[in-house]
Design brief:
By secondary structure, the protein is an alpha+beta fold. It has three domains: 7-53, 2-Layer Sandwich (Uridine Diphospho-n-acetylenolpyruvylglucosamine Reductase, domain 2), CATH 3.30.43; 59-174, 2-Layer Sandwich (Uridine Diphospho-n-acetylenolpyruvylglucosamine Reductase, domain 3); 180-292, CO dehydrogenase flavoprotein, C-terminal domain (Enolase-like, domain 1), CATH 3.30.390. Helix content is 36%, strand content 25%. It is built from twelve helices and 14 strands. It has helices at 14-24, 37-42, 79-83, 86-91, 93-101, 105-110, 113-119, 127-132, 150-153, 232-237, 244-257, 268-292; strands spanning 7-9, 28-31, 50-53, 63-66, 70-74, 136-141, 144-149, 154-156, 159-160, 167-174, 180-187, 198-206, 213-221, 228-229. Strands 4-5-10-6-7 form a five-stranded antiparallel β-sheet. The chain has a four-stranded antiparallel β-sheet with strand order 11-12-13-14. Strands 1-3-2 form a three-stranded parallel β-sheet, covered by helices on one side. Helix 11 packs across helix 12 (268-292). The longest helix is centred in the C-terminal third of the chain and has 25 residues, at 268-292. The protein binds flavin-adenine dinucleotide (FAD).
Amino acid sequence: MYLNHFEYYAPRTAGEAFELVGRLGDQAKVLAGGTDLMLILKEKLIKPQYLIDINGVKEFQGIAYAAGKGAVIGAATKISEVEHSAIIRDKYFALYQAAGELGSVQVRAMATIGGNSCHASPAAETPTPLVTLRARVVIKSAAGERQLPLEDFILGNRKTVLGVGEILTGFILPEPAPRSASRYAYIGLRNAMEIDAVNMAVNLVLEDDGRTIKDLRLVMGSVAPRPLISAEVPAILVGQEFGSELVGKAAAAAAGEARPISDIRASAEYRREMVAVLARRLLQEAFDAAREV
Ligand SMILES: Cc1cc2nc3c(=O)[nH]c(=O)nc-3n(C[C@H](O)[C@H](O)[C@H](O)COP(=O)(O)OP(=O)(O)OC[C@H]3O[C@@H](n4cnc5c(N)ncnc54)[C@H](O)[C@@H]3O)c2cc1C
């Protein structure tokens, strides 16, 4: 499979990158790890005239953390760096878990966290925990900057709000609340590089008594065109003491909210069932972990 002809640019600074995407307009594509883009180019689904490789731009890379404020993750940060970051493991465990599940060692060494959200596959690994952790995206262009919650950035299958001339430069994660914990898990059909049939992340905050749920976010992936934030699970559990009966009710509610399709990976019925299984499991795991913080 031959690639179409394109011109390749490798900016070294953010300013150069913004100038290029602005000037080359809709004929240009940003190239990060290339683990999604190169497949699409080979299949000739798109035929950009220009590729702008952002891997040399330091401003788009790395993980910075300030106690009490939170973390900033550059969009061009490799998944392998997220997977091996002590800050992500200690503060944002659901994201740490998801990064470790994405593809293979080789894919994680190439793929970036920004590319995972920009590609906007409904089955993507990292948007689910990022939305759960209330991540905001930073979008920049030669004209300026805007920020928005990640759930408003992803519009649907392979659709985002990114406009011509804009680059996703990073994610801002708030400092985790005291007595909180997050957890992630997915279900696939085989124990290899499978695409998720369902994935889910939970972030749970406890009151001082260590039993009552103060705040909760449960997000489902691969059961809707974009990450699906449960409205019913927090409505059932927040303000209540954690208990298996209520958790069972919440898990059933999450399954009811899911809007899965049937495809080669799983039937809609199976996905719904697995939403309930993952919800029960992750709520319990996050509760147990939050009690230990
Ligand atoms: C074998 C294999 C296994 C995989 N397994 C998984 C898996 O288990 N889970 C999973 O979620 N994904 C998986 N993927 C998909 C892919 O690796 C991820 O989606 C990855 O995070 C994409 O990042 P990238 O840096 O390679 O993006 P690229 O391929 O470089 O770009 C993807 C898209 O996003 C745009 N883009 C990238 N960065 C930016 C930016 N900063 N600003 C604006 N636009 C940008 C590009 O123009 C392109 O349209 C797999 C891929 C392969 C090949």
